[in-house]
Amino acid sequence: MKKSTSLLFSGLLVSGMVLGAASTPTTVHADDNTATTQATTNVTNNVTYYDQSGKEVGQKSNLEGTKGSAITYVPDGYALAKDSNPTFGNDQDSVSVKVTSMISVKVNYVDQNGNLVNSEVVNGGDGTDYTLTDIPAGCSWINDKEQKITLVNGKEYNVPVNKKVFNTVIFKTADDTEVGKTEVYGDKVGDAINLTSDQVPSGYKAQTTSLTLQTDNNTQFVTVTKAEDAATGTVTVNGKDTPLYTVYGNVITGRNLKANTSWKVFETKVIKGQTYYRVATNEWVPASAVTIANADTENVTPFTGVVTTKDKATTLYTKDGQAITGRGLRANSGWQTANKMVLNGTTYYQVATNEWVKADDVTLPSTSSNVTPAVGVVTTKNQVATLYTKDGQAITGRGLAANSDWQTANKMTLKGETYYQVATNEWVKASSLKL
After folding, report:
1. Has residue 283 got a pLDDT over 70?
2. Where are the beta strands (DSSP E) in 82-164?
C-alpha cells in the first residue's frame, strides 16, 4: 500500500487553564468517632516549565490551587510530558513541570486486506500516549492495544482494524416493485446472515430470510409477498372529501374518502416529496388531508426532508424506541425522512420502515453544513482563534495560537458563517483568519 504523506501543522494549540479541584478531607476524633470537616489549603506556587532536553520554556507562572491537587496548566503549544504528574506543594513553593511540544500526526486505518479505510489527524504532546476513539464506521478493533499509540513528531501510523463486509438488501414484489431496503453486515464474505422481522418491510413476508454475505458493497434482492394486513394506527379525514392515490402518487379516478370518516393505516411512505398513509391495497391518502387519531401514532407527525448523520455511525431505533442491533447509518450520510415522533421526551425521525434515528444524532437541513474541499494554508489573526466542532459548538480549552499557519482540508458554511477544517472535527471561523 502506498504510504500517504502526513499533514503536519505548524501552529500551536492553546491549552486551557484548569486549576486543581478543591476537596474537603474528613477528620475523625479518636475519643467519640464523630467526623468533622477540615478546610482545604489554598496555596500559590512558583511554577517553571522544562522541555524534554531540560531547557526552560515559556514563562514562569504563579499559579493558585489547592495543596496536593494536580497542576494542569501548561504554556501555549505544550502538553504535560508522559508520566509528568505535578501537584501543588506548600504555599510559595517552587515547582518544576516537565512538558513536551504539541504535535499533529496522521493516522491511517488499514483493514485486514491491507486496504486503506480512512485517515485522520490527531493532536497531542510529543512522546505522550494517545487513545484512538474515532474508529471508521463498520470497523472494529483487532484488540484493545491497537487503540493506543505513542505520538512521535514526523511519524505516520498505520493502525490495523477489522472491516465488516457490507451488503444492501432490496425487497421487491413479484412484479419487480421495490418496497423497501435494508443493510446487513458480517465479518467476512460467505457469512450466514438472518434477516430480522424489523428488517423486512411492514406488511410483507419475505420468501427467505437466510442470506449469504457477498462481496463488500454488493446488492442482494429478496422477493416479498403481501402479508395479512395489520393496522398500525387510525386516521380521520379532515373537513372535506379527499381523493385516493396510487403508490406512484397518481390520483385514482372515482375513489375518495368522505369527510370526517376514520380509516386504519397500514403503512407510511414518502411519495413525490409528500407523506402518504396506505389505507387499502395500493390506495394511499395524503397526510395533509387527514388527522392521526390512534393513540399508537398520535405522537407521530409528517416530516419530509433530509437529515445528515454526524461524524460517527448512528444507531437506529424501532418505533418503540428500542435500539436495533447490527444496524446503523454511516457517518456523514444523508437520509430522506417521512415522519417525526416524540417518544418519552426524545425526538426521532423516520428513515425507513420501522427504523428511526434520534434527533440528537443528526443535523437538519436548516442547520447542516455545506462542506466542500478546501486544501490550503490559513493564518490566524493577532489573537488566539477559537476552535469549533462540525456542529458549530465551541471547543473549550482548545484554540489556535495567534499568527500561526494551519493546513486545511475542507470548508463549510454553517448558519451563514464560513469555517475551515484544521483537524478531525476541529474547525476555525474565517473571521478569525487572515484571508
Report:
1. yes
2. 94-110, 116-125, 129-131, 139-141, 148-150, 156-163
CB contact at 8 A, 164 and 187: yes
Is 72's pLDDT higher than 60? yes
Q: Which whole-number Å values give the CA distances from 404 to 74, 77, 100, 124, in the listed order?
A: 19, 11, 19, 17
Burial class (CB in 10 A: 0-12, 13-18, 19+), 125: buried
**Torsion, CA 232, CA 354, CA 274, CA 312, rounded to 10:** 160
**Which pairing describes strands 148-150 and 165-172: parallel, antiparallel, or unpaired?**
unpaired
Around Cβ 254, how many Cβ atoms within 10 Å? 7
**Is the CA virtual torsion 327, 332, 333, 337 positive or negative?**
positive
CA distances from 366 to 109, 301, 306, 307, 363 (A): 33, 19, 10, 10, 8
Do 423 and 410 contact (CB within 8 A), yes or no?
no
Burial class (CB in 10 A: 0-12, 13-18, 19+), 406: buried
pLDDT digits (tens, 9 = 90+) for 123-164: 999 999 999 988 887 788 888 888 899 999 999 999 998 888
> β-pairing, 42-50 with 129-131?
unpaired
Percentages (nearest 5) of helix, strand, coil residues in the chain: 5, 55, 40
Asked if 242 and 285 count as a contact pair (C-beta separation under 8 A), the reply is: yes
Chain centroid to CA 293: 35
- DSSP 3-state of 145: helix
At 71, list the grid cell. 497542576
In which band, very low, low, confident or very high, does the pLDDT at 26 lie, cut at 50, 70 and 90? Answer: very low
* Range 24-38 average pLDDT: 43
Q: 65 forms bridges with which residues in the sheet?
A: 43
CA distance 42 to 249: 73
Report the DSSP pairing between strands 78-80 and 94-110: antiparallel
